[in-house]
Amino acid sequence: MNVAVVSDGPLKEGSNVRNIPFFYTSRLFSMAEISSRNLQEMHLLVIELEDATGEHVESLKTALADVPDLSKLCIVSKANRREVVQAAAFGRVEIFERDGDLTALVRKMRDMLQPDFEALFPETTPETTRQAFLQTVACLDEIVLAAASSRPMPVRTLARTLHHIYSALTRDGISAWLSAVRCHHSHTYRHSMMVAGLAGAFAQTLGWSHKEQELLTLGGLMHDIGKTRIPLSILDKPGELTPDETELVRRHTLFGRDILKNRLEIPFEVKKMAVQHHEFLDGSGYPQGIAGDQIDTMVRAITICDIFTAMTETRSYKAAIPPRNAYADLCSMKTQLDQDLVRAFQPVVLSVDLGALNRTVETLFDGKKATGTAG
Questions:
Q1: What single DSSP character describes residue 118?
Q2: 200 and 96 in one domain?
Q3: What sign does the dihedral 18-20-22-24 (CA atoms) show?
Q4: Number of structural domains, the chain?
Q5: Which residues of 210-230 are buried (b: 16+ CB within 10 A; e: fewer)?
Q6: What is the pLDDT of residues 128-167, one digit of tens each?
Q7: Are the C-beta atoms of 199 and 169 separated by less than 8 Å?
């Protein structure tokens, strides 16, 4: 979801609006220079009206004339009559109090941007997987908002979500889960849900206890929580990152440590997965460069799921590679990954690969293009 932020002059220090890029892919525009062309691909316009001149408000109204259906959220002080009148001049708008809570602002934006996932699901998505997906999206919303504040993580919601994911994987399989997850617009959410699903399926394959399955799945959901401190404009950048941007992204493991270290409601195993999932057995990983027995089994397993997901997902700057090719790459990382676990991961890969093949066949023979019976 793309958000345009418009203000008449620089955003002030401490403004909630300055935090929007951490939650949505955003672009900041000057109110005096905005054009309808800038707004064509946007899903929401956030208008900061503090100190906005009448002339520049009129310029923005002119730009909006060509995008009448664009949702608009005005940031105002309700005690300032001029700002309230300016907001009303834009027609159908939502109003948010400038001194309101950041969490409330993000929730307001999410209500306005709510995608119709039901319409995006593949027609073959089983009901159990549909419900698990919707529950997981709501849970990730709460995790991200908690990470941005001092509020505790939503423990009860997490427990319900893990139950839903476990049910979906048990009844419908990993392929159905990955197919549903791909319909989410956010790469960050999509990646976390894919890793969580693969982690749950992997733990089941390994014959781990139900508690261990829950821990690994939760680790998948939360392993990238540190990325909530990195603007989405960097995380979703279509081209190559600059050296400074690359270094900032690499710090997400340390940000994850800072977010989780004092949260007693989160299991220690999950905290380690958030901090160590880029560590390698030969000591070549980051952030600490630990090696061998310093990396426990759960971290080793989540690292395999994370790398496999990154290889098999499409990004703006790269194409996805087939599951079997990704698995071959895992096997080639002999000094970096636990090869006993990599071999144990093969049944999960085969399930994903078979699911990808089935989706291709369904696309070719969907009843509209088919001229005969496959076989």
A1: H
A2: no
A3: negative
A4: 2
A5: eebbbbbbbbbbbbbbbbbbb
A6: 999 999 999 999 999 998 998 878 899 999 999 999 999 9
A7: no
CATH number of residue 83's parent domain: 3.40.50.2300
Task: Clarify whether residues 164 and 304 are in a common domain.
Answer: yes
| Cβ atoms 232, 248 nearer than 8 A | no
Q: CA 35 to CA 340: how far, in whole Å?
A: 57
Query: For residue 255, with 0-12 CB atoms within 10 Å meaning exposed, 13-18 middle and 19 or more buried, which class applies?
Result: buried
In the block, residue with structure tokens 């829950």: 214
Mean pLDDT of 229-252: 90
Residues of the chain with pLDDT > 70: what percent?
Answer: 94
Instruction: Determine contact, residues 302/278, Cβ cutoff 8 Å.
Output: no
Start-to-end C-alpha separation, the chain: 41
Same domain, 126 and 10: no
Q: What is the pLDDT of residue 368?
A: 43
- Length in residues, the chain: 375
Q: Which residue has the tokens 């509209």?
A: 368
Whole-angstrom CA distances from 373 to 59, 201, 218, 366, 370 are 60, 33, 43, 11, 8
Specify if 320 maps to a domain: yes
Residue of 179, 217, 188 lying closest to 302 (CA atoms) = 217
